[in-house]
């Protein structure tokens, strides 16, 4: 993959469209035209940035949109590949855990297990579209319904966007409500990935389940009008948390 694709159209800063959109369209064209076929591994981020003449953050925005569109898939430790056609089914409203529990007639609850200020690792930085090493607030919380454990959620937010969050962590019930009231952050969309997983040894006691019990593993990236502001990884009890979808012809 060292040779530059012949059909590549490099983003032009003189054009009115955002660079991330131009990059997304350039990569999409390579896939649509068959220059990058299904199953092919695309160049790594450094090479793509060089080919397109854009920053890593701009590139990640474009790649994330193509992943969401089902055109690319990222495999941990291997790279990013062109995928065959996929079906996306099941659309849910964007709500906080608190609102979701209340809609199910359950009393929501949250217990803060830990709060840290840490430097963003590569995975966190990619999700939040921030430079690696930038400070983020990490909240590890036990989510409850009617006092029973539902799941454990580890949330990461850019510290610069939510001043005071770390100090207020132990008092927060609904995170989204706190962000709206104190940082002016209002979610407009989120992207979620659900996988089948198992309860890890560090989560078993709080979830009141044996180690290895089947569970949902959920990754969520939440956006406001400006950029992604939350990257959350959750382990949800499969016997107390359901995914429901309405499908139409």
From TrEMBL:
GO terms for biological process: negative regulation of DNA-templated transcription. Keywords: DNA-binding, Transcription, Transcription regulation. It comes from the Bacteria. The keyword DNA-binding applies. The keyword Transcription applies. SMART domains: HTH_GNTR, UTRA. Residues 17-85 form the HTH gntR-type domain. This is HTH-type transcriptional repressor YvoA. It comes from Devosia equisanguinis.
């Amino acid at each position: 993959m060292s040779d530059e694709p012949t059909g590549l159209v490099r983003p032009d800063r003189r054009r009115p469209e955002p660079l991330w959109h131009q990059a997304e369209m350039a990569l999409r064209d390579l896939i649509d035209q068959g220059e990058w076929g299904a199953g092919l591994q695309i160049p790594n981020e450094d090479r793509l940035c060089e080919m397109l003449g854009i920053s890593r953050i701009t590139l990640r925005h474009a790649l994330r949109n193509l992943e969401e569109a089902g055109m690319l898939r990222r495999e941990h430790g291997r790279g990013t590949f062109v995928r065959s056609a996929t079906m996306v089914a099941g659309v849910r409203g964007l709500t906080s855990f608190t609102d979701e529990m209340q809609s199910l007639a359950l009393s929501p609850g949250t217990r803060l297990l830990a709060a840290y200020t840490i430097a963003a690792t590569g995975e966190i930085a990619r999700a939040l579209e921030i430079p690696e090493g930038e400070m983020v607030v990490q909240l590890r919380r036990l989510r409850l319904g009617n006092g029973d454990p539902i799941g454990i959620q580890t949330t990461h937010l850019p510290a610069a966007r939510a001043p005071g969050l770390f100090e207020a962590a132990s008092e927060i019930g609904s995170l989204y409500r706190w962000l709206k009231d104190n940082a002016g952050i209002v979610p407009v969309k989120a992207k979620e990935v659900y996988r089948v997983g198992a309860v890890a040894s560090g989560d078993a006691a709080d979830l009141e389940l044996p180690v290895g019990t089947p569970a949902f593993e959920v990754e969520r990236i939440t956006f406001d009008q400006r950029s992604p502001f939350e990257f959350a990884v959750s382990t949800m009890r499969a016997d107390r948390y359901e995914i429901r979808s309405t499908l139409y012809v």
